[in-house]
Amino acid sequence: MTLSPGIVALLVSSLLVSMMLLIAAKEGASIIRHWNMTSGSELQLALERRTYLISTIVAIFLPLQLFSLFLFINTVDGISHLFTGAMCAAGTLKVNRFGYPTLFLKMVTFLLAGIWLILNHADNEGRDYPLIRVKYWLLLLIVPVLLIETILQASFFWRLRPDVITSCCGALFSKGSGTLASDIVAAPVVPVAVAFFGIIAAAIASGGLFLKTKRGAASFGCISGIAFITAIIAVISFISVYIYELPSHHCPFCLLHREYHFIGYLLYALLFSGVVAGAGVGVLHRFKKVASIKGPLLQMQQKLTVVALASFATTALIVIWKMASSTLRLFT
């Protein structure tokens, strides 16, 4: 096992978050079964006091889970020099079979945690806690995913061996490697670029329409999710190539390096912010008729829409800037 401050921080924080959310899920299950806002029983009063404490605890620890995604990527990238063949996080994640599944689950828990925090904030706006069962059902979904992620992450770090020869990103993100990434690399660039800019434009138009008419929130949420997936594909297909100015270099992890001004962190932070905010608008739309939070809910949706629009628009502007300033020309 290889140890570094980042690895220790990830293991400790994952264990701590898992323990706290397990406790919260246990209490949440009790609240789901027994919650009755119209009752004045001692049990109901106890549940009301308990839910405030539980929500506060979860709202404190879930942001750690959000941060852990970027810490994980930074950590595995930082130890890549320990493994023969690895040039960045791509090679480190390939050292054993737990690397990429851990990264995938961290992305999933990031999205779920973001949605939970949005629902929790909306629920706290109502005096009758109208979304209390919804948010605790979501918590019950998050906990097993988080536990699996914690186990996979521990297994990944435990089985890191410096004597292992791994693959470099040039081999992993190249044509003919027989992976999904190779299929993306092999895809024609023009259709991918058109899809990327088209879906970003659609997201901006959809969000603008919602801000103007208060309609189309669900559509905006769906388009935001599609925009996120399309953007990740575009990063591998052509965005990274323009930033590296190398037509054969498609790695989405080398963007995190100093020589590229850590632009990857900015791009990925914008994309994750955009998809969480956009999806949050769509999720909150399902509860627009709840009387006790109708006003605050609309205000939340508007703020989230602005965040999503700013994130997607900034992403597009960065990509356009890098394409315009690059010496590489893929489109002639």
UniProtKB/TrEMBL annotation:
Keyword Glycoprotein in annotation: no
Protein known as: Membrane protein, putative
Span of the signal peptide: none
Residues annotated as transmembrane: 6-25, 52-73, 103-122, 134-158, 184-211, 218-243, 263-284, 304-324
Keyword ATP-binding found: no
Keywords from the UniProt entry: Membrane, Transmembrane, Transmembrane helix
Source organism, top-level taxon: Bacteria
